[in-house]
Amino acid sequence: MADKKLAEMRPEEFPPDRYTRAYAITRVFVRLLMPLLGGITVRGAENIPMRGPILLAVNHRAYMDPPYLSMVTKRQLHLMAKEQLFQIPVFGSYIRALGAFPVKRGAADRGAIRQAIDELKAGHVLGIFPEGTRADPGTLMPAERGFALIAKQTGIPVVPVALEGTDRVHPKHAKRLHRAHVTATVGRPVTAAEMLAASTDPGRDALTIIGEATTRMIAALMMEPVTVLSAPAPGEEAAVQPAGAALKNNSGKKWLPLLTLSGIGVILLLAARSKRRRQ
After folding, report:
1. DSSP 153-172
2. What's the CATH number where 101 sits?
3. Position 17 in a domain
4. pTM for the full predicted model
C-alpha cells in the first residue's frame, strides 16, 4: 500500500531544495563542459515540479548518464550508486557529497530501498535507472522490481526520462569521451496507482505491471527506434541495481573519463573550500 501521508502531501508542504556545495560546484563545471562535448537539448523539463518529491525513471546507456541527467532539472538529484564506488578513496566521499547513496549489487538491498524512500520523504528528486545496468543501443531492458516497489510503496509520481546520445559520447569500452549531441525528453508524471488502474490484466503481479508501464513510457519518449526486452518471471526477490552495475572491480579504464571529470570536480571543491577559509 502506498504511503498515504507522503503521497497526499502538497509540494508546498516540503522545504525547497538546497544544493550541497559539492553538487553546486560540480553542476557549474558540467554546464561548462556540455557544449564542448556536443551539447544537450532538454524537452519537457516543465514536467518536473520545482518542489516536492519526484521519482525520475531514466534509461541507462552510458556511464556519462548521471552528469547529463543533472542538466534535466535545476533541482539537486539524489542517485543510487554501486556500493563499491564508495570504497574508492576520495571518489567515494565525493559522490556521497553529491547526494548519492550506496546500494548492494544483485541483492535485495532493503537498506537502499529504505534510503530511497527517506529521500522522497525529504522532498528530494530521486533518480533511478530501472534497468539496473547499461543497455545496448536500440534496446530497453526490463525494469528491476526494486524500482517498482519504491514507486508502489510511496505513491510518488514517476517521471519518465529518455536519454539519447550518451552512448555516443562515451561508448562501451571507450577510454575517452567523444563529441556528440544528447537529447533528454521528460514525460508527464504518472503514479503507480494510475499504472495499475490502466492495466488490462489486473490479476498480474503489481510490480511487473509498474515496471513494464514505466519502460513503455520511456520507450514512447524516444526519437530513435527501440526494442523493449521481455520482463523476467515474477516472484523474484525485489532488487534495486545501481547505475553502472556491469562495472567489474578491475575495470577502472572504462570509468577513466568519468573519474577524470569527478577528479576535476573534487579539485574545484577543495579550491572553493580553501578560498573560503582564507576569507
Report:
1. HH-PPEEEEEEESHHHHS-T
2. 3.40.1130.10
3. no
4. 0.82
